[in-house]
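Long-time lurker, first post. I've been practising inverse folding by hand and with some scripts of my own, and I keep getting stuck on stretches where the structure tokens seem ambiguous. Below is the full token string for one chain I'm working on. Before anyone asks, I'm not after the true native sequence, just a reasonable design that respects the backbone. If someone could post their per-position residues I'd love to compare against what I wrote down in my notebook.
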């Protein structure tokens, strides 16, 4: 079975902007996500939502692309929130210590709210 290509649908009208990922986020497709993230950061979006409900697979390169988004949001004074995270990716995020930083809405963050999360 051939890998499913990644599609990224961007809805940048609401705040925060929402990116809906469908397919597989891996070494071959992670650059597409990074490109979409960069476009939104350049347009002034600091907080983003990644909807992963239709994401079928995410490898370490995909996770690195998500962390690129996390860092970009932090640098802009915003936040990256993941929704629709499946059980497999949730486990990876839990093991890496990123689950709460990326999946729990936090309207007010203190400077130490993300202790232990890479910046």
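-- Answer (accepted) --
I ran through it position by position. Result:
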């Amino acid at each position: 079975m051939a890998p499913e290509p990644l599609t990224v649908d961007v809805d940048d009208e609401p705040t925060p902007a929402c990116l809906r990922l469908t397919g597989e986020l891996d070494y071959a497709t992670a650059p597409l996500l990074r490109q979409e993230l960069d476009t939104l950061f350049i347009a002034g979006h600091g907080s983003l939502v990644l909807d992963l409900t239709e994401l079928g697979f995410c490898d370490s390169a995909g996770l690195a692309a998500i962390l690129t988004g996390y860092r970009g949001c932090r640098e802009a004074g915003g936040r990256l929130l993941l929704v629709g995270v499946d059980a497999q990716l949730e486990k990876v995020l839990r093991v890496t210590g990123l689950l709460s930083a990326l999946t729990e809405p936090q309207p007010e963050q203190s400077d130490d709210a993300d202790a232990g999360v890479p910046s």
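A couple of notes from the structure itself: The first strand starts at residue 7 and ends at 11. The radius of gyration is 13 Å. Happy to go over any region you disagree with.
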